[in-house]
Amino acid sequence: MKVVVNFDVCMGNAQCMLAAPEVFEVREDGFLYVLQEAPPEALRAKVENAARLCPTQAITIEK
Amino acid sequence: MRSVVIVGASLAGFSAAQALRRRGFDGKLALVGDEPHLPYQRPPLSKQFLAGAWDRARIDLRIADGLQLEWLRDARAGALDLSRREVALADNRRLQFDGLVIATGARARKPRWHEEMDGVFTLRTIDDALALKAHVAAHTRKVAIVGAGFIGSETAATLRKLGCAVTLIDVDRLPMLRVLGETLGGVCLRLHQAHGVRTRFGVAVKALLGAAAVEGVELEDGTLIEADCVVVGVGVTPNVEWLADSGLRIDDGVACDASCAALGAENVAAAGDVASWLHPRYGRIRIEHWDNAIAQGDAAAQTLLAAPGKAPAYAPVPFFWSDQYDCKLQLIGLPRPGDALRVVEGSLDAPRFVAVFERDARTTAAFLFNSMHRVAAWRQSIESDAAGLVQGAVA
């Protein structure tokens, strides 16, 4: 699984961080950091939930 | 369950469709929506889309492949017959179902002084946004915005940035007063004023001025506000009229139990802006926010697929965000009137701060101003306090 974020549309709402804190972190600068670009399969459900909840649909999961 | 009909093809309806498939439903699935458009995100309509920064393609709702649904667009539900388990569309087509999800959303409320005339807008659909955008681009100089809730406040910020002269009007004394209370409403007021928005609060609108085209707004105290564009954002009305003869209980939306199952019906659930359900923590509530439409669509799907009596309660901690000027406002939880407000990070006049609402030594909500990095931590704290509240109620 590969996590791709379109940073042009990310608004830093931190919904992804709530759903999958192991993978997404919004820091003090207001920007999103992807902690693991290729997270383990065990996190798939969480990452998919993060992609669903993103209000700007900035997160895509490849494979 | 062999067939499910979902009425309402916006975020909650689509979320229900996706959740049904994700949860293994492989029967017939029909999705009915009254708009001719592909589904889109509503939050940008008062922000990036209105500003022209994001185009139509960017706000399309992303839809998972393989949903295998019969999608009826431009189709309006006219009536529900529970004994025949049938939805009648306005064009007389009939759809049979075993399970039904009601996700017909809400529409912009039009107060009694509202008149349809050139230059008067509500902002709920993409057509509304396109019309407002075109009007502003063509000839708007002076905008009056009635209602300083989410839509009104965000629209004021966006149009101000586009160079319009903006007057923001509300019958309440402060913007966002009903959701955020006095102190934070004051923060919002200063934000508008700092950006050159004129504000008229604590006074009701009496009438719109103009004949064919709007020329302004008359307030109850006699003031005339000149405007060539008026945006009315005074809340929404749930779309339940089509259910009038269905036998379903209507109570500020479709009345549901704790699992989002409609009261007085079998295998009927509701989700999104139209659903008024019995939240285990907060009582009967209706939530009009983005993440609720997604999560409640999922909850409705889960309830339809559950064995009788086994559907779990839907008990989310409410969350919303609002972008105004370059500021991000986020609220986690649900403050009630009378909760005490305490600033816990930064200060009210700082570029970022966090304030919490408290009652009986528990945190009921956290308000984050430009503090997105603190969302996860505060959500956890609110969730554990909310869980404690439920236990307390049970004990």
Description:
The complex is a heterodimer of chains A (about 60) and B (about 400). The mean pLDDT of chain A is about 95. Chain A has one domain: 2-Layer Sandwich (Alpha-Beta Plaits), CATH 3.30.70.20. Chain A is built from two helices and four strands, in the order E-H-E-E-H-E. Chain A has helices at about 15-20, 45-55, and strands at about 1-5, 25, 30-35, 60. Chain A is of the alpha+beta class and about 60 residues long. The longest helix of chain A has 10 residues, at about 45-55. Chain A is about 25% helix and about 20% strand. Chain B has helices at about 10-20, 50, 55-60, 125-140, 150-160, 175-195, 290-305, 375-395, and strands at about 5, 30, 70, 75-80, 85-90, 95, 100, 105-110, 120, 140-145, 165-170, 200, 205-210, 215-220, 225, 230, 235-240, 255, 270, 275-280, 285, 320-325, 325-335, 340-345, 355-360, 360-370. The radius of gyration of chain B is 22 Å and the shape is globular. Chain B has about 400 residues and is α/β, with parallel strands linked by helices. In chain B, the strands form seven sheets. In chain B, strands 3-2-1-7-19 form a five-stranded parallel β-sheet, with helices on one face. In chain B, strands 9-16-10-11-12 form a five-stranded parallel β-sheet, with helices on one face. In chain B, strands 22-23-26-25-24 form a five-stranded antiparallel β-sheet. Chain B folds into three domains: about 5-105 and about 235-305, FAD/NAD(P)-binding domain; about 110-235, FAD/NAD(P)-binding domain; about 325-390, Enolase-like, domain 1, CATH 3.30.390.30. In chain B, helix 1 (about 10-20) packs across helix 7.
